[in-house]
Amino acid sequence: EVYFKNLSKQKQKEVMEKNGNNHKLRVCVATCNRADYSKLAPIMFGIKAEPQFFELDVVVLGSHLIDDYGNTYRMIEQDDFDIHTRLHTIVRGEDEAAMVESVGLALVKLPDVLNRLKPDIMIVHGDRFDALALATSAALMNIRILHIEGGEVSGTIDDSIRHAITKLAHYHVCCTRSAEQHLIAMCEDHDRILLAGCPSYDKLLSAKKKDYMSIICMWLGEDVKTRDYIVALQHPVTTDIKHSIKMFELTLDALISFNKRTLVLFPNVDAGDKEMVRVMRKKGIEHHPNFRAVKHVPFDQFIQLVAHAGCMIGNSSCGVREVGAFGTPVINLGTRQTGRETGENVLHVRDADTQDKILHALQLQFGKQYPCSKIYGDGNAVPRILKFLKSIDLKEPLQKKFCFPPVKDNISQDIDHILETQSALAVDLGGTNLRVAIVSMKGEIVKKYTQLNPKTYEDRLELILKMCVEAASEAVNVNCRILGVGISTGGRVNSREGIVLHSTKLIQEWSSVDLRTPISDALHLPVWVDNDGNCAALAERKFGHGKGIENFVTLITGTGIGGGIIHQHELIHGSSFCAAELGHIVVSLDGPECLCGSQGCIEAYASGIALQREAKKLHDEDLLLVEGMSMKEEEIVSAAHLIQAAKLGNTKADSVLRTAGTALGLGVVNILHTMNPSLVILSGVLASHYVNAVKDVINRQALSSVKSVDVVVSNLADPALLGAASLVLDYTTRRIY
User: Fold this and answer.
1) Residue among 147, 175, 174, 173 at smallest CA distance from 161
2) Residue among 300, 247, 244, 241 at smallest CA distance from 78
3) What EC number(s) has UniProt assigned to this enzyme (predicted)?
4) Which residues contact 387 (CB under 8 A, 6 or more apart)?
5) DSSP code of 297?
6) What does CATH list as the number for 410-544?
7) pLDDT value of residue 18
8) What is the pLDDT at residue 441?
9) 22-198+381-391 under CATH 1.20.1250.20, yes or no
10) Which element (helix H / strand E) includes 314?
11) Which of 47, 57, 231, 718 is deepest in the core (most CB within 10 A)?
């Protein structure tokens, strides 16, 4: 902890030096209404408490300055903040046009204010139309924007406004993991996103301990007890004003029938708000003995009221967000908060079209106590946000960069593409054979060529070129359009550059070899190169059991042991192209020596070479052959003989296979505990002999949370060639793989 604190201080010091030693970050906080101030106030207090780092300018606009909504700018003054500018931006009206005109009025007035203040960064909250005007003005005037609560989902025009502000903002503070993922999906730069939690939770989580009875009595009367009253807060839905007003009418009727003391807050400034106030007055709510109708309650007091209420009802985001911190029952009406993450305290009445339905919800929820929910924060948002602000480097380019996912270019629809089969040339460099194949988009091997793999680099490269030229010529005859060349080879491969960095001992003179350049120059085709284990995983992803699976691992069991890892649909290469060297997972500290120079690797137990070694030992001791087996004098002992002996009842051969299967199983358990894939695919000639042993080890040794993993044997006849082809077929239109 001390290390990370010192690291953070060092980073802040470096940023201060970059920004100029004496330069304080000038932060403009613009607040539009009572709701956003409750989220911004904790940040403002934090900024004010560190004058050595920050200068704070406060701009107040929107409903803060309207008497009908309680002149809530006064609570900002009561909190001892100097208000630099007051902007009257609300155009009175009862329809959607009034909101548009209010945005226009704010856009007219804001440039002069921002020109005078010249802030380094503007903090904007949420999804109100006033906030959209703020973000638009700041973006067009080249002022950096920090957006609070982006990435969330709800059910009204607020969604569109929130996401529009996200695209204008340079930095993002989000409250939940889902919101963070939404921002990333919207192509925002992950380095500029802070998962901090909701700033209001910094107050909420300590609020319940304070004195509350005097507050309850002040707003609801002396005779009211805790958990025996209701807080109602409902706003118009601007995309369906008539329905939301009808729903408000039904809510008030249900509350009158329920006959409990109720605090009703006036709605937000939105199209339809005046009509909702008229509905309240028409029903006599302001004079009803069970009701208290108020324009505004200070946030500190509002916290206490909802924390000790028997229920909250309406469609305010406060109900699904902040109230969860206290476990107070909530009835969420209509679609205004559709998509919000909620705790178990929230009962949704999506189609609140009858009084009885709302009344029934009140009967179900009133007086219950639910577990407290911390979905939206842990009480430490403000320190995280201040640290984030201090890390902003003002010398970085102002222009936003979006992190778009790779997009394939369109293939021209000429007659050749329609008539020909799009295909790849696949090359497999094995320890013994060199193979080249024409592979179609569907994974069909149209034509295959096989030659012995030469021992020298020059002969090998010459043969690859010769076989590829021959296959490319034949492709014309079989009506295949070759899109590129994919090469699968043993060893460590820099797949970005197409270079074999280090080879296995099975392929000689095959280190620091540039395969891409000579083959691409000779064939005038793009060339991709990767490790054979990675290619096997790609083959499974495109053509085999891994198709459509997000996270899986492929293990090749052949002469050696290799593999590939697919995580979130992408192949993992690692920082030095050494990922998925699964054969060299150590399962024993004093096991047999491996070809890599280490001891106790999976490959030293379970590879074809390892089985051949053990078979030779048994044969030398005359313990291999059993009844039903025979060998010619010149015949070389192989792993196949060991497997045959085990099948015919040779207990020593069977013991060797069980040890090999156990070693492989332990390696798989380590993979499960590290990567947590949903599928393990065993590939290669030995896969069927090991699958049951691997499953047994998983059942005995793995954590219970990963035991449900599927372990299957590959159904692909030629994963190396298919994987090499998939390099081409999946990535032909990308410049970099």
Assistant:
1) 147
2) 300
3) 2.7.1.60, 3.2.1.183
4) 8, 12
5) -
6) 3.30.420.40
7) 57
8) 87
9) no
10) strand 311-314
11) 231
The answer on whether 187 is annotated among ligand-binding residues is: no
Kindly state the DSSP code that residue 97 receives in the 8-state scheme: H
Give the integer Cα–Cα distance in Å for 584 and 596. Answer: 8
Contacts of 418 (CB under 8 A, 6+ apart): none
Residues of the chain with CATH 3.40.50.2000: 22-198+381-391, 208-365
For residues 574 and 582, give the distance between their C-alpha atoms in angstroms, rounded to a whole number.
13
57 assigned to active site: no
Given a cut of 70, the residues of the chain with pLDDT beneath it are 1-22, 94, 208-210, 407-420, 506, 732-737
Q: Enumerate residues 6+ apart whose C-beta is below 8 A from 182.
A: 151, 152, 153
Q: What does the pLDDT read at residue 12?
A: 56
CATH topology of domain 208-365: Rossmann fold (3.40.50)
| Residues 6 or more apart in contact with residue 649 via CB below 8 angstroms | 626
Active-site pick, 120, 273, 530, 532: 532
Long-range residue pairs from 159-167, CB within 8 A, at least 24 positions apart, any chain:
159/127, 159/339, 161/127, 161/128, 161/129, 161/131, 161/132, 162/126, 162/127, 164/132, 164/135, 165/124, 165/127, 165/131, 165/132, 165/135
pTM, full prediction:
0.53
| pLDDT value, residue 13 | 58
pLDDT, tens digit (0-9, with 9 covering 90-100), for 43-69 = 999 999 999 999 999 999 999 999 877
360 known member of a binding site: no
Radius of gyration of the chain (CA): 34
Residue 480 is labelled as binding a ligand: no
- 289-292: long-range contacts at Cβ-Cβ below 8 A with a sequence spacing of 24 or more? 290/256, 290/259, 290/260, 290/261, 290/262, 291/255, 291/261, 291/262, 291/263, 291/264, 292/219, 292/220, 292/221, 292/261, 292/262, 292/263, 292/264
275 is known to lie in a ligand binding site: no
Check: CB of residue 605 under 8 Å from CB of residue 587.
Answer: yes
String of DSSP letters for 240-275:
SHHHHHHHHHHHHHHHHHHT-EEEEEPPPSSTTHHH
